[in-house]
């Protein structure tokens, strides 16, 4: 499962009908906006297309995760202009200093921190990198996709 693929039945339940999906996903992202300007969402057949502009590749990564960690979304297509990047959007969304991780049953942020940083007490670093998709560090769920910042 790559960055742009998600589990359809996992995540926040924002909409009941596909006709409401684009508006509800846009509303959700706007309420927790990590820095996307001119945001709009198109939704069809489980695919959320995110349109906007930002000065930060990190903001674009977070918006992809916010949309993708929504029930009913199976794929996110980023149509985001990243102003500080002179390469294509896909390369900017999958940099070498970030890894994407799908939470497994039995995981905790401290367990994930131990795996990536060899120190369970580094879990706040993971939480801070994912505040838009994780509201409480004790409430994560299997199938949720998160960012792991690397050194």
How would you explain this protein's 3D organization?
With 151 residues, the chain is an alpha+beta fold. Helices cover 31% and strands 23% of the residues. A three-stranded mixed β-sheet has the order 1-2-3. A two-stranded antiparallel ribbon has the order 4-5. Strand 2 (47-54), helix 2 and strand 3 form a beta-alpha-beta unit. The chain is globular, with a radius of gyration of 15 Å. The protein starts with 17 loop residues before the first helix and ends with a strand. The model has no long low-confidence stretch (mean pLDDT 90).
Give a quick precis of the structure:
The chain has 151 residues and is an alpha+beta fold. Helices cover 31% and strands 23% of the residues.
Q: Main β-sheet, in a few words?
A: 3 strands, mixed
Architecture per CATH nomenclature, i.e. the level-2 architecture of the largest domain = 2-Layer Sandwich
The structural domain count equals 2
- The counted number of beta strands is 5
Mean pLDDT: 90
> Secondary-structure element order, as H and E?
HEEHEHEHHE
**How is the CATH topology of the largest domain named?**
Histidine-containing Protein, Chain: A
> Strand fraction band?
15-25%
Structural class: alpha+beta
Query: Going across the major beta sheet, what is the strand order?
Result: 1-2-3
Question: What low-confidence regions span 5 or more consecutive residues with pLDDT below 50?
Answer: none
Backbone CA Rg: 15 Å
Shape summary: globular
CATH class categorisation of the largest domain: Alpha Beta
Helix amount, in percent?
25-40%
Number of helices: 5
Kindly, what is the distance between the CA atoms of the first and last residues, rounded to a whole number of angstroms? 23 Å
């Amino acid at each position: 499962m790559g960055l742009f693929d998600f589990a359809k039945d996992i995540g926040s339940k924002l909409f009941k009908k596909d006709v409401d999906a684009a508006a509800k996903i846009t509303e959700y992202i706007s309420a927790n906006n990590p820095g996307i300007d001119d945001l709009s969402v198109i939704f069809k057949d489980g695919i959320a297309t995110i349109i906007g502009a930002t000065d930060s590749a990190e903001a674009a990564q977070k918006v992809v995760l916010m949309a993708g960690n929504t029930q009913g979304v199976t794929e996110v297509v980023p149509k985001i202009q990243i102003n500080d990047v002179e390469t294509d959007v896909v390369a900017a969304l999958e940099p070498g200093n970030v890894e994407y991780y799908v939470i497994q049953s039995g995981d905790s942020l401290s367990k994930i921190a131990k795996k990536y940083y060899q120190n369970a007490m580094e879990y706040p670093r993971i939480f801070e990198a994912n505040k838009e998709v994780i509201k409480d560090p004790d409430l994560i769920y299997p199938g949720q996709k998160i960012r792991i910042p690397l050194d």
